[in-house]
Amino acid sequence: MTLQAVRLILFCVLLPTISVAFGSEKQKLQSSYELMSPENQAMQDDPSLNPATFWVGDG
Fold it and tell me: Taking the CB of the first residue and of the last residue of the chain, which one, N or C, has fewer CB atoms within 10 A?
């Protein structure tokens, strides 16, 4: 293996590690609930209107 090939392999392996460690800040996770309209949020909050409640009831 040539020196140039070794350098290329090291570059490809180490670059993602370095960029993650130094280049990125932690992103705040966002719930899709925050993106819903107030009407949809009200439906999700009310157990009698929430569609997921029907699936839970069915088992």
Answer: C
